[in-house]
Amino acid sequence: MAHIIALANQKGGVGKTTTSINLGAALAQDGQRVLLVDIDAQGNATSGSGIDKSELALDSYDVIVDGAALRDVIVPTDNYDLLPATIQLSGAEIELATQKQREYRLQKALMTVSDDYDFILIDNPPALGLLTVNAFTAADAILIPVQTEFYALEGLGQLLNTIELVRKQFNESLDIAGILLTMYDGRTNLAKQVSEEVRQYFGDKVYHTVVPRSVRLSEAPSYGQAIIDFDPKSIGAQVYTELAQEVLKQYGN
Ligand SMILES: Nc1ncnc2c1ncn2[C@@H]1O[C@H](COP(=O)(O)OP(=O)(O)OP(=O)(O)O)[C@@H](O)[C@H]1O
């Protein structure tokens, strides 16, 4: 059975996709069998994994809304398997709203392949709608990337409320995998202040690994590559390899 980790924060641009791709690739390079699930209609995890969205016949919309078989939709990439997303997914929330068992769609699909993988990572949209609720219902744990910038903690209360709600109604064993500090700029007092604040609030739930702000990390997706392939010697490659080791330790693989 795979460990299913949802990467979520309804705040936009905090590093969910960057972490999904690079943690996924680093876990795969360690020999883990990884499935990356893109349920963000922006499809950035899909293009960032080197997949041309215009050539896809099926995507996560077909699985979640229309019940297509997951195995027919998964595509291989350099490091991991991918359930891709395209703009088609942007209508999913409204279409799901009237469907039965709407919170369990993704869980049901993932159960069909869970034995084929060691880790399933779910890249979420920047929202707390039905797609995110599907991810939380399917997941064992949530990894929350937090950008070390002003307003970092804003909205985390809402996220924690949603987690609690899903725990009560759909998935009582849902856990927080950890908080990941991202885009850390050690030259600024603000970054230090924010990371201290986050550590005070979340204690040992915060990963030791901290992702620095790095131009190479932001360049890699436009080449459709994970940082470990795009620039294996870069700080970003080192840090995501470290994060993978932390996650592996956490889950005992
Ligand atoms: N450590 C980093 N250093 C520099 N740039 C980064 C870093 N992490 C992410 N970025 C850049 O910041 C932007 C937002 O990152 P990303 O897409 O990973 O966030 P997100 O939370 O998935 O966004 P969204 O909420 O829109 O889905 C992207 O342009 C990405 O390349």
Automatic annotation (TrEMBL):
<dbReference type="InterPro" id="IPR027417">
    <property type="entry name" value="P-loop_NTPase"/>
</dbReference>
<protein>
    <recommendedName>
        <fullName>Sporulation initiation inhibitor protein Soj</fullName>
    </recommendedName>
</protein>
<comment type="subunit">
    <text>Dimerizes in the presence of ATP but not ADP; ATP-binding is required for double-stranded (ds)DNA-binding. Interacts with DnaA.</text>
</comment>
<comment type="similarity">
    <text>Belongs to the ParA family.</text>
</comment>
<dbReference type="Pfam" id="PF13614">
    <property type="entry name" value="AAA_31"/>
</dbReference>
<dbReference type="InterPro" id="IPR025669">
    <property type="entry name" value="AAA_dom"/>
</dbReference>
<feature type="domain" description="AAA">
    <location>
        <begin position="3"/>
        <end position="176"/>
    </location>
</feature>
<dbReference type="InterPro" id="IPR050678">
    <property type="entry name" value="DNA_Partitioning_ATPase"/>
</dbReference>
